[in-house]
Amino acid sequence: MTEKEIKAAKDLLHMRYYGDGCIRPGVKWLKEDEIFEEELSCREMINSILIYGGSCEKGSYQYDKYLKPYTEKETWHDGLITLTRLDELIKEQKADIAKAEIGFAGYDSEGVSYNYCKWADE
């Protein structure tokens, strides 16, 4: 999924559960929507890792620190994503990133470097 597709999916979930910006009393999230929202967040993390040249391979620092927690119940992610599904998400995001243009965007005033990603659907 591209950034535009992820944002559209998040907006749809937000409208379903929050509508005018407020939590609707008595409305409980469906489990599949909780999982889908977590997958969208995970896709954003995968994209960030790939845009900055990190590795999403099992055993890499980025995988263990930033992706694996999406599968573990002890973390704030609550283990909503299975390891098999995480592997699928990584594969899907790698395919979409391969169609994007990624480059160095420069430094900020504190010397932190930034990359950019121009998606195929932009």
Question: Can you summarize this structure?
Answer:
The chain is mainly alpha-helical and 122 residues long. It contains four helices and two strands; from the N terminus they run ααααββ. Helix 2 packs across helix 4.
Task: Describe the protein in words.
The chain is mainly alpha-helical and 122 residues long. It has one domain. 49% of the residues lie in helices and 11% in strands. It has 4 helices and 2 strands, in the order H-H-H-H-E-E. Strands 1-2 form a two-stranded antiparallel ribbon. It is globular. The two termini are 13 Å apart.
The tally of helices reads 4
CA-based shape:
globular
- Kindly estimate the percentage of residues that lie in beta strands according to DSSP: 5-15%
Instruction: Give the overall average pLDDT.
Output: 90
Runs in which pLDDT lies below 50 for 5 or more consecutive residues are: none
The N- to C-terminal Cα distance equals 13 Å
- Radius of gyration, in angstroms, nearest whole number: 16 Å
How many β-strand runs? 2
Walk across the major sheet and give the strand order.
1-2
Biggest sheet features: 2 strands, antiparallel
Q: List SSEs in N-to-C order.
A: HHHHEE
User: Approximately how much helix is present in the residues?
Assistant: 40-55%
Instruction: State the domain count.
Output: 1
Structural class: mainly alpha
